[in-house]
Amino acid sequence: MYAERASRLPGGVVWTNTPGGPGEGRVLPDGCMDLLWNEGRLLVAGPDTRAYVTEGPPTTWVGVRFHPGTAPGLLGVPAHELRDRRVELADLWPASEVRRLCGRVGAAADPVTALEDVVLERAAAAEPPDPLLLRVVTALDTGRPVAATADELGLGARQLHRRCRTAFGYGPKTLARILRLRRALALARDGVAFADTAARAGFADQAHLARDVKELAGLPLGELLARRGGQGPL
């Protein structure tokens, strides 16, 4: 079962997922990165460009999902280095520090809160998120074209691409495409007809929506919705 709540970290989400049985899980791209806790290990989920499929025996996962663009400043690694990857936190931070944190989260009565506390402490010692990057997300999530977004922010196309790659793991066109997919899925889950979903989310037509869903999520839209719509991170 998947459950989430707003994090005390601004823009973040804290979640838990305990699959009901063995089988395939599907994580859809969302422009975010996550810090994960699973069976005594701390891992980082990098930004996905396609659905990430999980398999194997069911285990409980706990995660903190960062607002798009904010994780690299907290983790100390450019997002593009983790694109489409799951890596041990010890590959990014000193092993002794990670062992200490693993012991702390593992011994906690509530690993969810303990993991969130780790993130909050890290955030308190880090530079605040770049407000320009937050404006990029806001503009693209409302369907603003990439070129217009760059102009409004006073950035050249190459500069915007470089900054997006560091913050989000990919360029602004890919980020816009992923955010558009998320808008479409939210509408479709609410029962909006697929043709209306396509128009309201910013697709050229329903066929365009279908192609993007199949390419990014790996399943047709109807089947994806029937499976929970890929709502859980794992």
Please describe the structure with a list of short key phrases separated by commas or semicolons:
10 helices, disordered C terminus, globular, alpha+beta, six-stranded antiparallel beta sheet
Would you give an account of this structure?
The protein is an alpha+beta fold. The protein has a domain at 2-125. It is built from 10 helices and 8 strands. It has helices spanning 71-75, 95-107, 111-125, 131-141, 146-153, 157-168, 172-189, 194-201, 206-217, 221-226, and strands at residues 2-6, 13-17, 25-27, 34-38, 41-45, 52-54, 61-65, 86-88. A 6-stranded antiparallel β-sheet has the order 1-2-7-4-5-8. Strands 3-6 form a two-stranded antiparallel sheet. α7 runs antiparallel to α8 (194-201). The radius of gyration is 18 Å and the shape is globular. The relative contact order is 0.16.
